[in-house]
Amino acid sequence: MLTQLTVSNYAIAERVELQFSGGMTALTGETGAGKSIVLDALGLVMGGRADAGAVRHGAKRADITASFDVTHIPEAIGWLCQNDLDDDAHCILRRVISKDGRSRAYINGQPCPLSHLRELGSNLMDIHSQHQHQSLLQKDTHRKLLDEFAGAEALAPAVKAAWKDWHKTRSRLTQRQHNADEAEARLQLLRYQVEELDRLALEVDEQTRLEEEQAQLSHANDVLQRSQQAALLCTEDETNAAHMVRQALTQLEQLPVEVAALSETLQMLNEAYIQLTEAGDNLRHFIEDYDADPQRLADVEERLSAIYQMARKHRIHPEELPELHQHLSEELASLDQGEGSIEKLEEELAGQLDAYRELANELSALRHSAAGELDQKIAAELVQLNMPAVQFITHLNTQTDADPSPQGYEDIEFLVSANPGQPARPLAKVASGGELSRISLAIQVVVAQTSTTPTLVFDEVDVGIGGGTAEVVGRLLRTLGSGGQVLCVTHLPQVAAQCHQHLFVSKFTEKDATFSKIETLDDTGRITEVARMLGGVDMTEQTIAHAQEMFSKGQATHH
Questions:
Q1: Which of 218-222, 311-315, 475-479 has the weakest average pLDDT?
Q2: From the CB of residue 201, how many other CB atoms can be counted at a distance below 10 Å?
Q3: What pTM was estimated for this model as a whole?
């Protein structure tokens, strides 16, 4: 719901700040006073086109800010969250227009493209105007309104989701079919490569282990020779180290007296003798057990050669071969009778088509059932609006044999026949501005209980009507406002007397400059304004009394 509108230096308005509440709000005033400023400003902040002429003369820029409460608008909340622009239950749209015609847009303080204002704005407000963008002329709006009236708000997105699944699979299948030859060649290559890697059967870290073993085996003779020499030096040669240490110990053990200072040295020599003896034993055991197997070395080198050759073939490092093997195996499984095969995709596509058709048939039944009821109810409202000759038709062009559509089987369009005997044609080609506004009003009254657009704006919906019809228009607008929020520009006292909130627009001149002023009227001011609308500048007691009666009756209206 629109809660506040601030307009600075736009058209003839220097500064306007308005607070809005729910219900029906009427904007009235003399012709040329600037009533269109509010609606035009709202159109701009919703992403409408702007030009340099929008900026007040003498100002550098025009600045328009509209605040909305989106607590009960899940579509708007979802859009804001999806675009990381959510700010609790508040939404602030801003449009700044420079005098050179350039403009900038903001949502909750963040710069954004105009397309974002239009996308989000479509969830916040719908403007029905003779000069502004009119969503009622768009087929997307027709479909949306019918689906809401039919109670298909959840089913329609389900149909679209099913279409997306089907479309994605069909695209994959088409690509596979178009590239069948290339795919078959790829399949054959994959089979050959995976078979090679299967035969190689390389284990994780096997290359590292083999290289370490190769290093040992390739130096086996040198290792054995040096180990034998070390054994001789430790214990087996005539002048081995252990023998010489034993001789040193003997000399110290035969000292004629015990020398305390040499006790530690004796201990060290004893330990050295023991260590040398054990080292010699270990070397003998190593020499006896050492296997310098030339055949094993040949086998290891042959295995390493196969690994290196496979790595060079795939132009990768040898340690990357296991990962490559897994990747190629998975791709082969996908193409070879897996999820990427033509047969598998055809089977998946058929299942998704069945799921889509089941949902689309259900949606189609709801639409056809609701279309007639919608037409009848709108026709009844048009009679009240003094348009009894207008025939309203919700046309459903159903094509079950065509390719699936994200919107279901139907191409939906609202048609009207303005006069008896004339064929029904699209709204944009038949209805005039005033007629379109009243037709829009009739549609909105009917779908008000199901429509998700919280704020409706009507510009001069009462053009060309008067008397009892004008009173009906007022009742209809009040009814709409009772369930949401309605803003309307009106010239008729019968309409203005029934609003919940009344904004009066006037203009004045000061220092050769023209200004527009908008004020919220209290009950006394509202009666005075209704009297002015009834009797013009000269208001008599009778006019005021009539206005008082009309106001009292209008406020008691509960249609």
A1: 218-222
A2: 8
A3: 0.57
